[in-house]
Structures are given as C-alpha cells and as structure tokens.
C-alpha cells in the first residue's frame, strides 16, 4: 500500500511538472516566444545577457553545422550505463551498511565510513580535475557528481567527528562554524586551482554559511545579518555575470534578494507591524523586478519578483486599510495597478492584480450588499461598459 502511494506521488509530481509548468510559466510571463517578434525579442535579450555581438551571431550562423553530439557508439553508451550502475550500487552498498550497522559501530568506524569516504572521493575528484586539465574534456561528466558527493560526505563526516570527540557539546553553532570554515577552505582552494563552476558554487555556499553562523555567534541581530549578507550576495551575483560562471548569476541574485528582503521585513516588523513590513518589502521586490525588467535581463527573476512582490504589497495594503475610513483606496490602487500592468506588459503582475481586485469586490459585496440583486447587475453593466470603452479606444488608436 505504501509503495502504491509513493508511486502515485511520483507520477503526480512528474505529471505536474510536465503539464503544470507550461501553465505557470505562461501565467508568470516566463515563456513569451509564440511568434517571430517574440523570438527576436528573446534573441536580443539573450545577446544582452551573455554579451554576444552581432559579429559573433553572424559567425555562428554561417559556421558549418557541427556533428550531432547525440550520436554515440554502442560501446560508449554501454560504458556510461555500466559506470552509472556501478556508482549506484557502490553508494547503495555504503548507505545500506551504514544504516544497518551504525549503532553497533565504534567511533573510529563511524568517522571512517563518513569522513574517510569523503576524503577518498575528494582524492578521486582532484585526480579527475587534474586529468581534465591535462586532457581537455576527458572526464566532463564525472566532475559534478564527484564534487557534490565529496562535499556531502565530508560535511557529514566532520559533524560526526566532532560529535564523537565532544559528545557532551551543547552548542551546535561552534561545530557548524568549524565545519563550514574547513569546507570553505577546501572548496576555495580547489576553485582557485581548477576554476570550475560547481566549485565556485560550493565555495560560496560554505563561505556564506560560515559568515552567517559567525555573525550570529557575535550576537549581531538576525535582521542585520540577513541585510548585510543578502546585499553582499546580490553584489557577488552581479559580478558573476561578467565571469565564466555566469550560470550562477540568477541563483545568486535570487537568494540575495530573498535574504536581503527577509532582513528588511524583520527590521520593519519589529519597528512597526507586519502589515507595513509586507507592504514596504513587497514594493522593494517589485522595484527590484522592475530594474531587471528595464535592463531586459533575467525575465524569470523579474516575473517571479513581480508575482511575489505584488502578493506581499497587496496583502499588506489590505491589512492596513481594512475596516478603515479609506478602505476604498485599496480598490483605487488595484485599478491603477492595471494601467501599470499594461505598460509593463507583465502577466505575473496582471494575474495578482486581477485576483486582488476580484477578491476585494467579493469582500466588499459580501460586507455591504449581501442578498441584494441590484449590486451584481450593476457590476455586470459596469463590466460591459468598460469592455465597450476599451474596444472604442482600440479603434480610435488604429485610426490615429
């Protein structure tokens, strides 16, 4: 029965990803290539993001088509398949052994099967990186899984080592600070030597984890830590855009903006109220998304920013105006935001604005016009009138 439930959940996740994602992407404006003009706009956006010149585009366009990389020999496919199977069985064997005999292991054995395995994987990773530098592209698909596996095993191994040496320790921050510091040195040294994107990612992760725990140990308030580290990560993401590791730019900007605004939210909430914090932080996120939108870069981040920021702003504004003398100002703000949606051509912002307007109309009708036939008819007539005015405006614009 449990296996059947797990299978159903997996199928739902796969189906949701296949069928649901296009709908979400369309609603948020993440996929706008439906015609020739949209394709040209998308191409121009990619050229700005990756600093591609017209000469480079022309050279790539007229270059002979490369050989199809997907056509691989049967021997190569069999070799890759058996390599994956071998790695899976090795990891499964290690995991099963650790799970079955963990309680009966001594301290040395626990450290050996975690930290020891991690450093063995690190040695293999360094060997693969060295061979990859000597013979370009010899082990391109081996680097990423080796790097992630070694990081996971070494991190858990260092925590196991500290727990076995200091079983009565009660301050997890000291242990985390030591482990994150050691791992930051590991990954930073590897990145300085081999300049791989996955090593840049792991180095940044452990450096910021070390700084977060260290600043917390110094007694600095959480909101100030979030503001400082979020702002610095945003700057790091902007710098990554001009490097060979620009694939990390969007994740760095996303995490930086979220971290920064979480700190601002906590700061404002402590100083005033969560409603003001939600409104102000929502506007900050919208302005950040507008900056990306104006620069014509990172459409996924700008769409997500418009979506989340507008939800926070509308929620905070409603809480502030709810049951007040100027409650109708909320409807005026949402109606004005429709004009902004049309100007910015943002489907994400349009979605949240329409939902906010409809929700407020429903709330207002329930509060003041319950069981009244005239109010729904009035709303319908107003809707028809607005549709007529819009159609007339379009025709007038076409004749001008």
Q: What is the C-alpha radius of gyration, as a whole number of Å? A: 28 Å
Number of E-state strands: 0
Strand content: under 5%
What is the helical fraction, as a range of percent? Answer: over 70%
**Distance between the amino and carboxyl termini:** 68 Å
Query: How many helices in DSSP terms?
Result: 15
Detailed description of the structure:
- By secondary structure, this protein is mainly alpha-helical.
- Among the domains are: 94-220, no CATH class; 272-393, no CATH class.
- The chain is built from 15 helices and no strands.
- It is globular, with a radius of gyration of 28 Å.
Looking at this protein, list some descriptive labels.
400 residues, mainly alpha, globular
Q: Concise description?
A:
The chain has about 400 residues and is mainly α. It has 15 helices and no strands. The model is unreliable at about 1-30 (pLDDT under 50).
